[in-house]
């Protein structure tokens, strides 16, 4: 059995105005499907690494392949912009709770977010070798600290979803084809038209009605 390794991966919008680093554990380990009693609202589980597609109209029309990580404050660093609320476009669907951020230049959606955030100093010199290498290449960082935006670590209870399509190509251990071929993608049934009580349980293998692979 191949051992999963936690590595930093880079991502960006198409024009490069939005740039981030995301830690993933690959190869991925699938999680157990929660029962209806455990998850009556069909919401994606938290505190685990999860790759999923949702058949709601927002996710379908945006073509999002979601990535949730074990600990968003520890796993995600937004290198640019440092104030997404002010510098990115922000689409609020339905109840307006989720920030569906997008680049104002190229329109790419790199991540969606709910919750408090903070700008922190990242000590490049003290970072692990793999993260230090990525920071040097992606942010042009030397040995000193750099600024980065992230979900606020203290008391974190929010939501951060990274769009897998915004990960940069050609990175070691990262092959999005593998995610489908090895059945790593969970499919959630959250289509608005179905209504409460009529939604099916999450599953692997086959998308729900009006969903996509």
TrEMBL record:
Family listed: Belongs to the Gfa family.
Domain CENP-V/GFA: 9-180
Naturally occurring in which organism (per UniProt): Plectosphaerella cucumerina
Residues spanning the membrane: none
Gene Ontology molecular functions: carbon-sulfur lyase activity; metal ion binding
Protein name (database record): CENP-V/GFA domain-containing protein
Keywords of this entry: Metal-binding, Zinc
InterPro entries, sorted: CENP-V-like, CENP-V/GFA, Mss4-like_sf
């Amino acid at each position: 059995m191949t051992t999963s390794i936690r590595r930093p991966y880079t991502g960006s919008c198409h024009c490069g105005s939005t740039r981030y680093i995301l830690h993933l554990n690959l190869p991925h380990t699938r999680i157990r499907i929660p029962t209806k009693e455990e998850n009556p609202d069909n919401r994606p589980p938290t505190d685990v690494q999860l790759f999923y597609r949702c058949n709601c109209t927002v996710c379908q029309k945006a073509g999002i392949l979601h990535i949730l990580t074990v600990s968003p404050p520890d796993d995600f660093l937004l290198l640019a912009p440092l104030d997404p609320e002010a510098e990115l476009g922000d689409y609020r669907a339905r109840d307006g709770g989720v920030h569906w951020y997008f680049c104002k230049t190229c329109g790419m959606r790199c991540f969606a977010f709910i919750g408090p955030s903070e700008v922190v100093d990242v000590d490049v010199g003290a970072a692990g070798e793999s993260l230090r290498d990525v920071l040097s290449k992606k942010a042009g960082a030397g040995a000193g600290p750099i600024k980065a935006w992230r979900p606020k670590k203290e008391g974190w209870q929010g939501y951060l979803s990274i769009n897998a399509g915004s990960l940069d190509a050609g990175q070691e251990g990262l092959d999005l084809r593998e995610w489908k071929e090895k059945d790593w993608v969970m499919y959630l049934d959250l289509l608005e038209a179905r209504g409460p009580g009529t939604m099916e349980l999450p599953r692997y293998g086959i998308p729900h009605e009006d969903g996509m692979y």
